[in-house]
Design brief:
This protein is an alpha+beta fold. The chain contains 7 helices and 5 strands; from the N terminus they run ααββαββααβαα. β1 and β2 form a beta hairpin. α2 crosses α3. The N and C termini lie far apart (58 Å).
């Protein structure tokens, strides 16, 4: 049950973490928290990955800029060591308590003990990861296939009996049933656990970032449309829907593949005889 409740409160835990990092940095350099935005801007990009044990693991990039954002360098006191210390302290300190329930009592939810913080440099060879390495790292977890992890189902579950039909490991279906049971308790009604049973209680997005962190998806779509010439062709139609057509080989291709397989098997037989 704690597994599901952690997923359901992960967003709240992340929000408290980001505020704690800002507070820690302000206190360290002797700034009132209310004046921190006058000297620096702290932003985050977060990637949520489902591990094989069906627990969400968070990868994040923490960015410190000047008050104007990415176009302005951070203040002199905004060193990598200070940011690292603030992240580690915030991750250890934040806690979210679940509503008390006679069925499951109360839980204090925290981040795990495995916290790996590494500095990011604009150029390689400066005692840190390069921005290209981080871009590849982020892309890896954003595009990671569901077959490698335990992510639940790709659509909402509308009835208890539907859980048995989900093509997932028994452990994942158990977490879905836990979501359904807890979702029926009045104290957990605001969490909408039944609506999010297909994601094991997790209500966040795979990738989240503030608008000022980097280019927005809307800007990227506009750039792609302009590059493809859609802006110059008002009548152009973009088909954004997909449908399943089929899988496997056609009849002719299947016949060829069968012949190739037979030839390979025939060629292996003399070799096997020589080995014996």
């Amino acid at each position: 049950m704690a597994h599901v409740l952690w997923h359901a409160h992960a967003g709240q835990l992340w929000d408290r973490f980001t505020r704690a990092v800002r507070r820690r940095l302000a206190v360290t350099v002797g700034l009132p928290q209310s004046r921190f935005p006058e000297y620096a801007r702290l932003s985050f990009a977060k990637i949520a990955e489902y591990q094989k044990r069906a627990a969400v693991h968070v990868h994040a990039v923490v960015r410190l800029d000047g008050p104007a954002g990415p176009a302005e360098p951070p203040p002199l006191w905004g060193t990598a060591d200070r940011v690292t210390a603030a992240v580690q302290a915030a991750a250890r300190s934040v806690v979210v308590r679940t509503p008390y329930s006679p069925a499951v009592a109360e839980h204090g939810l925290r981040w795990g003990r495995q916290i790996d913080v590494r500095p990011l440099r604009a150029r390689p060879g400066h005692d840190g990861l390069s921005d290209d390495a981080v871009a590849a790292y982020v892309a890896k977890y954003v595009t990671k296939g569901a077959s490698e992890t335990a992510t639940g189902a790709d659509r909402r579950i509308t009835a208890w009996d539907d859980i048995d039909a989900v093509p997932a490991p028994p452990h994942v279906r158990t977490l879905m049933r836990t979501c359904w049971r807890l979702g029926g308790l009045a104290e957990f009604e605001p969490l909408r656990l039944r609506s999010w049973a297909h994601t094991l209680g997790f209500r966040g997005h795979i990738l989240t970032k503030p608008r000022a962190y980097s280019a927005t998806y809307a800007a990227l779509r506009a750039e792609r449309a302009a590059h493809e010439g859609h802006d110059d062709v008002p009548s152009a139609v973009t088909d954004a829907s997909w449908r399943y057509v089929g899988s496997g080989l056609s009849a002719g291709a299947a016949l060829i593949a069968t012949g190739v397989a037979d030839d390979l098997a025939l060629n292996r037989e003399p070799a096997s005889g020589l080995d014996r």
